[in-house]
Design goal:
The protein has helices spanning 2-14, 21-35, 39-42, 44-51, 66-77, 80-93, 96-121, 135-141, 146-180, 184-199, 202-231, 236-245, 262-277, 284-288, 296-303, 305-325, 353-363, 438-446, 455-486, 491-504, 510-534, 536-551; strands at 124-125, 131-132, 332-335, 341-345, 376-381, 384-385, 390-394, 397-398, 400-406, 414-419, 422-423, 428-434. With 570 residues, the protein is of the alpha+beta class. Strands 6-5-10-11 form a 4-stranded antiparallel sheet, with no helix packed on it. The two termini are 39 Å apart.
Length: 570
């Protein structure tokens, strides 16, 4: 697992973790926002009317209503990114990361408008009578870039695991274990059976379930969030101030948090923002392609609401809960994850300014730090280290009250070999106090409100509903990609692997899963951003044509009549 984690780190460093990716993502959104004259603002009210069915026609071709398509797409985005992803971004980048999540969402509203419109325009009806769409179809049918369409479809299948299946059940199992004491494998087994029963029913069953689950789960989560926010109301103004003042300078050290540079906060904020709302990734267009609409622009407008609901509302509430409660700078008793842990030489004290400065440079990737990774042996007696010539970093903080164990016991006696900052024996467990991240951090924050310790149940239930619905939606994205690649007969084998992966991830290392998801997102996003930029002029013409027909009161002619008939899929 360590080798796989290192490999994924290398890929993420070249792709999502690179300096250029956030600029590409925000740059495309910014370009279309200006090019189309701020559609996320000008068309917002019209989008609300469309999604309520004001302009629906019963005779239109498709599998779902506008609202069902929006619910399916939202169920794919409103997931662990809203609970665990926001917490991870803040634990890494501090309050500044939340600002860049907002920017990703604002410009992402336009990006999603564009990608959904173009994908819906070039959707097809498959041989089994269902609609199929997504960026791979406009890449193939309009750009004549079959190779790019195939690349995108393969990336979609990979991302269905890295974004939809694996991290979702991982966070569910973690939350159920922390709150109710349920075994992770047992949680995975039960939910895997339920997942299989749902996705076998196809898009109509998926849409029927998500259209009921999404509103309920959002209402429950928002209620719990306000219970914390109003309880800590005096900290809301300082929290907002920290978000804005640190946005362009990075987040300063606070409590156990050792600080994050601007580059780190910017990169992680944009990356987590994309993971949350998926704008530009090309996933939502697959769900919207099933909608009953003959005018692609109208469905594109519906998609504008997604980043607003997902990030501007839900992620902001999560961020304010975490910041106002103060738990993001507090250390808690926790099991140290190997992928978030490093042993370094010497004794470092976070109250010492010089030590803080060196650790800040080390954690933020500066080359002039003096921190060295520890290699050697540690003598342990009943879980406590005898030699004290090392410091343990975990979750970007200094670990305290360190205890060594093996299996379920933290009373290990013997020698622990450390090589390049990591225990050689993977069966050795480390426990102590440190900062926490992901769903665990959000769970801690929800206990600091009017509901007290009972607040953790809101997170667990919300996480269960959010993440499970996300896994359901992403199974549909993957099976549409498989339909494009190998035809409808490939869907059933894909679903079997999808459910199996869902079960496996229930007891896998959480950080490793997030790393896999981060890589999958970028591999899927880049071809889609390239495609919509190539079709920028057609997009503008399509929007202008829509408004001309709408304002003149003409019948909205189907764009599908203007393009060649869909090719047969074998």
């Amino acid at each position: 697992m360590d080798a796989l984690g290192s490999f994924l780190d290398s890929l993420d460093a070249m792709l999502g973790g690179s300096w250029w990716f956030p600029y590409v993502l925000l740059g495309v959104g910014f370009f279309f926002t200006v090019y189309l004259k701020f559609p996320q603002i000008r068309y917002f009210k019209h989008a609300c009317r469309v999604v309520t069915g004001k302009y629906d026609k019963k005779s239109l071709e498709g599998d779902t209503t506008h609202f069902q398509a929006l619910s399916t797409a939202l169920s794919g985005t409103v997931g662990t990114g809203n609970i665990g992803g926001v917490a991870l971004a803040i634990s890494i980048g501090g309050p500044a990361a939340l600002f860049w999540m907002w920017m990703t969402a604002f410009f992402g509203m336009t990006t999603k408008f564009v990608e959904v419109t173009l994908s819906h325009k070039y959707r097809v009806k498959t041989e089994d009578g269902t609609m199929a769409g997504g960026p791979m179809y406009y890449m193939d049918r309009r750009l004549n870039m079959k190779w790019l369409a195939v690349l995108f479809a393969i990336a979609t299948v990979i991302s269905s695991f890295g974004t939809g299946s694996l991290p979702q059940i991982n966070n569910i199992a973690q939350g159920m274990e922390a709150t109710f004491g349920f075994e992770r494998m047992a949680t995975g087994a039960v939910l895997s059976i339920l997942l299989a029963l749902v996705i076998l029913g196809g898009i109509k069953r998926i849409a029927a379930i998500t259209s009921k689950v999404v509103p309920v789960m959002a209402a429950v989560y928002i209620l719990g969030a306000f219970a914390v926010i109003f309880y800590n109301i005096e900290n809301i103004a300082p929290s907002f101030a920290a978000v804005f003042t640190n946005a362009f300078s990075g987040s300063a050290a606070a409590g156990g948090f050792l600080g994050a540079s601007f580059a780190y906060a910017f990169n992680r904020g944009v990356n987590r923002g994309l993971f949350s709302n998926e704008a530009g990734q090309g996933s939502a267009p697959i769900a919207h392609a099933s909608a009953k609409a003959d005018e692609p622009v109208s469905e594109g407008m519906v998609s504008i609401l997604e980043p607003f609901i997902d990030t501007i509302i839900i992620c902001t509430l999560t961020g304010l809960v975490i910041l106002s409660s103060g738990v993001w700078t507090e250390k808690f008793e926790t099991e140290f994850e190997r992928s978030s842990m490093t042993f370094i030489k010497g004794n470092y004290d976070e109250s010492n300014d010089a030590d803080r400065s060196e650790l800040y440079k080390y954690l933020n990737g500066y080359s002039d730090h003096k921190v060295e990774e520890y290699s050697g042996t540690i003598q342990v007696v009943q879980g406590i280290a005898v030699n004290k010539d090392f410091t343990v970093l975990h979750s970007r903080s200094i670990g305290e009250d360190i205890r060594f164990g093996i299996s379920d016991s933290h009373q290990y006696t013997g020698v622990v070999e450390i090589e390049s900052g990591m225990p050689v024996d993977p069966s050795i467990s480390i426990q102590g106090k440190s900062l926490v991240h992901s769903a665990e951090l959000t769970t801690k924050a929800f206990t600091r409100g009017y509901f007290g310790d009972s607040g953790k149940y809101i997170v667990s239930i919300g996480l269960l509903l959010f993440a499970f619905s996300t896994a359901i939606a992403w199974s549909y994205y993957g099976d549409r990609a498989m339909t494009y690649l190998l035809g409808p007969r490939s869907v059933m084998p894909y679903r079997v692997f999808y459910v199996a992966g869902f079960f496996w991830a229930s007891f896998a290392d959480t950080t490793l899963i997030w790393k896999l998801a981060a890589v999958g997102i970028v591999v899927m996003t880049l071809p889609n951003l390239f495609g919509i930029m190539v079709l920028r002029k057609e997009m503008k013409e399509t929007v202008d044509d829509y408004w001309e027909k709408f304002e003149n009161g003409k019948d909205q002619a189907s764009d599908s009549d203007k393009i060649e008939k869909s090719r047969d899929f074998q």
